TrEMBL record:
Molecular function in Gene Ontology: oxidoreductase activity
Superkingdom: Bacteria
Taxonomic lineage from the root: Bacteria, Pseudomonadati, Pseudomonadota, Gammaproteobacteria, Aeromonadales
Gene3D superfamilies given in the database record: Medium-chain alcohol dehydrogenases, catalytic domain, NAD(P)-binding Rossmann-like Domain
InterPro entries: ADH-like_C, ADH_N_2, ER, GroES-like_sf, MDR_fam, NAD(P)-bd_dom_sf
Protein name (database record): NADP-dependent oxidoreductase
This protein's UniProt keywords: Oxidoreductase
Gene source species: Aeromonas eucrenophila
């Protein structure tokens, strides 16, 4: 008797903020693994802001998700059956075959998790793509130096929490921006020197000037809009901006906001560089060599916001744009 896999499919392309009605939970047959294939049951699924871009038809660096087909994304699972020499029953693996509870795939589509007692779901967040994004942005793009002042937007999220901690380890003075009092308090526990609750700060320029009288040497940009304008006003001469994300725009219907003050880049000779983490994947081993021992020693911390069950996945995804997560937003399966 053939088994079934459950998966979330995209029913229609969202307009503005996605709604649960844009998605459907469907059952599909799960084939028997053939030679070279592996059967995996997922335990942890990732929702990430970049997935919003793939839900539209706009041309980007990754193709759009198909309608009425499986979505994909980061996942951690356990091997249930293997006909591939590189995997055995019980192995913990990561894949891009998320948004579903189980699947059969070729072994080449799977990566064995490194041997560590750390929780496996860290490899979707702090030790996975978001953590690597923070590390690459700070060290490969901005080349952050000890003693510099760094501003990080969406600082309490998956990328942000790693960016602020890695920057502190590198000897920087770190300012974070986030959207609630609880998140401000959390960031302070991570050793962030100063935190802005942007929702309760009517004058971002004045607040940044107060918190960084020496100016901002590096801005790690995850949001865009008003914070980017305020950061440009406060950057030092020869400051660097890592353009990692612009989440403030992801649900806008074409009406992208600012910055209206790009002239600051000329006056201050600011360097702004876009970041795609995939360009830096050859350094993932270097990142893990630093980050795994630091987590094992308790010198790095990771927070998670966990929603339970495959059916909750659309809502967890939407929650990213409503600020519902502290640290990495994850979906846990039974
Ligand atoms: P997060 O865990 O940071 O979750 C998103 C957070 O963004 C929310 O919790 C919310 O926090 C904040 N946010 C959402 N909407 C808005 C808004 N309209 N205005 C201001 N803040 C908002 O996500 P990630 O860490 O996974 O991603 C962070 C950024 O990094 C995203 O822009 C993402 O696209 C980008 N990214 C880029 C990569 C690359 O290779 N270039 C790779 C990975 C991520 P708050 O409460 O603080 O508002």
């Amino acid at each position: 008797m053939s088994q079934l896999s459950h998966q979330i499919q995209l029913l229609r392309r969202p307009t503005g903020l996605p709604t649960p009605a844009d998605f459907a939970l469907r059952e599909v047959p799960l084939p028997e693994p053939q030679e070279g294939e592996v059967l995996v049951a997922n335990q942890w699924l990732s929702v990430d802001p970049y997935m919003r871009g793939r839900m539209s038809e706009a041309k980007s660096y990754v193709p759009p998700f198909p309608l009425n087909g499986p979505l994909d994304g980061g996942a951690i699972g356990t091997v249930l059956a293997s006909r591939h020499p590189g995997f055995k029953v019980g192995d913990r693996v990561s894949s891009m075959l998320g948004w579903r509870d189980s699947f059969v795939a070729r072994g080449e589509q799977l990566t064995l998790l490194p041997a560590t007692p750390l929780p496996s779901q860290l490899f979707l967040g702090a030790l996975g793509m978001p953590g690597m994004t923070a590390w690459a942005g700070l060290h490969k793009v901005a080349k952050l130096q000890a003693g510099e002042t760094l501003l990080v937007s969406a600082a309490s999220g998956a990328v942000g929490t790693m960016a602020v901690q890695l920057a502190k380890r590198a000897g920087a003075r770190v300012i974070g921006s986030t959207g609630s009092a609880d998140k401000v308090a959390y960031l302070k526990t991570l050793g962030v020197d100063a935190v802005i609750n942007y929702r309760e700060t009517p004058d971002l320029d004045a607040e940044l000037a107060r918190l960084a009288p020496e100016g901002i040497h590096v801005y790690f940009e995850n949001v865009g809009g008003a914070m980017l304008e305020a950061a440009l006003n406060q950057m030092t001469v020869h400051g660097r901006i890592v353009l990692c994300g612009l989440i403030e725009q992801y649900n806008s219907n074409g009406g992208a906001s600012g910055p209206r003050n790009l002239a600051q880049m000329i006056r201050k000779r600011i360097l702004m560089q876009g970041l795609l983490v995939s360009d830096h994947w050859q350094h993932y081993g270097d990142f893990l060599a630093e980050a795994i021992p630091a987590f094992e020693a308790g010198a790095l911390q990771a927070e998670e916001t966990v929603s339970e069950g495959l059916a909750s996945m659309p809502q967890a995804f939407i929650g990213l744009f409503e600020g519902r997560n502290t640290g990495k937003m994850l979906v846990k399966l039974d």
